[in-house]
């Protein structure tokens, strides 16, 4: 079993910055992919950013140039630096991880979600 613990959400004014962290612990052999989804009220969940074990990244078009994802493999932790925040970035941000065990099976895990609110 793997646990994901998120931190760093909160309230910020438009134009401000926040940094989200997500630390994975438990039965981890390899974290193949790790990142963040978000869901705003009345909207579909969308992938915000993700990073692979090979440090390949992808971003939603709406956050490119403003958000940066990074990972610390030694700490099994992923970070999302969010700059130039806009009110439309307001959502619950949830961390996810695709984790392989020693048997080669891959499972997906989710954090509990953290609220990000950007005021105008």
What is the residue-mean pLDDT, rounded to a whole number? 96
Oligomer: single chain
The fraction of residues assigned to DSSP E strands is over 45%
Helix content: under 10%
* Poorly predicted tracts of residues: none
Describe this structure in words.
The structure is a single chain. This protein has 120 residues and is mainly β. 0% of the residues lie in helices and 60% in strands. It is built from no helices and 11 strands. Strands 2, 4, 5, 6, 9, 10 and 11 form a 7-stranded mixed β-sheet that branches. A 4-stranded antiparallel β-sheet has the order 1-3-8-7, with no helix packed on it. β4 (30-39) and β5 form a beta hairpin. It is elongated and about 50 Å long.
Give the topology, please.
Layout: E1 2-7, E2 10-13, E3 18-26, E4 30-39, E5 46-52, E6 57-59, E7 67-72, E8 77-82, E9 91-100, E10 106-110, E11 114-119
Parallel strand pairs: 2-11
Antiparallel strand pairs: 1-3, 3-8, 4-5, 4-9, 5-6, 7-8, 9-10, 9-11
Summarize, please:
The protein is an all-beta fold and 120 residues long.
What key attributes describe this structure?
120 residues; mainly beta; 7-stranded mixed beta sheet; 4-stranded antiparallel beta sheet
